[in-house]
Amino acid sequence: MKFITDVAPNFIITSNIFLLAVTNIHAANILFYIGGISTHSHRAGLEPLANKLAQNGHNITFFSPLKPIESHPNVTNFCPPGLKAFNDKFQHSFGVIGMQSRLKSKYAADLVSDYGTFMFDMGYSICEVIFKSKEFQKWVKESSFDLVVLDRSSIPDCIYGLAHKFGAKTISYTPISFILPWDSLTFGIPTESWWLPTAGWTK
Ligand SMILES: *[C@@H]1O[C@H](CO)[C@@H](O)[C@H](O)[C@H]1NC(C)=O
Ligand SMILES: *[C@@H]1O[C@H](CO)[C@@H](O)[C@H](O)[C@H]1NC(C)=O
Fold first, then answer.
1. Rounded distance between C-alpha atoms, residue 18 and residue 202, angstroms
2. What's the predicted TM-score (pTM) here?
3. Three-state helix/strand/coil letters over 31-99
4. Whose CA is nearest to atom 12 of ligand 1?
5. Average pLDDT for residues 158-180, to the nearest whole number?
6. C-alpha–C-alpha distance, residues 136 and 35, integer Å
7. Using CA atoms, how far apart are residues 46 and 126, in angstroms rounded to an integer?
8. What is the number of the ligand 1 atom nearest to the C-alpha of 55?
9. Cα separation of 1 and 20, whole Å?
10. Where are its TM segments located (predicted)?
11. Index of the ligand 1 atom closest to the CA of residue 27
């Protein structure tokens, strides 16, 4: 996969430079964000980095509807209850109902068959759920972060606004093998037509 070979080494190099840089300077307040379109593997890919940074003395908060896979005593977990309910519903519609439709047709791509419009709308709904939450509003007032790490595939667009409020830098990455249509702008990677059909983008 061209995307993986292009982007994964960059992410690893960037992460290593980042680890070297912050380890030598100061303990940072870091927020890891995975939103309301997420499953076990989203957290499995990111959690080791969060735990390692916590082990090295950084103050880590994991904002995610997913439970820790390996709990770390120095990592604070936070999730507005509404976001957890949203993600549970998503996991049912995508995981259970989506799998049934893919078993009927290998071309079924419920989430992306409309070129991502449906997912963009979901992203909007996720932000609405988060920002309206009383628990979230209280948490924002009490929190401060130097860095926000965002899983792009969980459609975290509104969290850039939160990073702006905190005056935090951001690291965006995607753990999936294709990019969402509007992520070509985020990453500056053209949506190449030759690999999109293999990701189930078009029928
Ligand atoms: C938790 O952080 C402290 C430093 O703040 C560190 O000494 C300790 O080893 C960390 N605990 C773990 C389990 O990594
Ligand atoms: C570490 O993070 C927690 C949770 O966000 C926060 O309550 C606490 O004040 C932070 N500690 C420091 C030293 O910044």
1. 37
2. 0.80
3. EEECCCCCCHHHHHHHHHHHHHHHHCCCEEEEECCCCCCCCCCCEEEECCHHHHHHHHHHHHHHHHHHH
4. 55
5. 89
6. 13
7. 20
8. 14
9. 29
10. 12-34
11. 5
Task: Quote the CA–CA distance of 27 and 60 in Å, as a whole number.
Answer: 10
- Only one residue has tokens 């292009």, namely 6
The pLDDT of residue 94 is 77
pLDDT exceeds cutoff 50 at 2: no
For atom 11 of ligand 2, which residue has the closest CA? 59
* Interval 27-64: pLDDT, tens: 899 999 999 888 899 999 999 999 999 999 999 999 99
Closest ligand (CA of 76): 2
**Closest ligand 2 atom number to CA of residue 76:** 4
Q: How many angstroms is it from 69 CA to the middle of ligand 1? A: 18
Instruction: Extract the tokens encoding 6.
Output: 């292009």
Atom 7 (ligand 2): residue with closest C-alpha? 143
Q: What is the pLDDT of residues 97-132, one digit of tens each?
A: 777 877 888 777 666 666 667 777 888 999 999 999
Q: For 1-25, b where at least 16 C-beta lie within 10 A, e where not — what string?
A: eebeeebeeeeeeebeebeeebeee
- Using the mean position of ligand 2's atoms as its centre, give its distance from the Cα of residue 85 in Å: 26
The pLDDT tens digits of the residues spanning 174-187 come to 887 777 777 777 78
Provide the 3-class DSSP secondary structure of residue 7.
helix
Residue-level length of the chain? 203
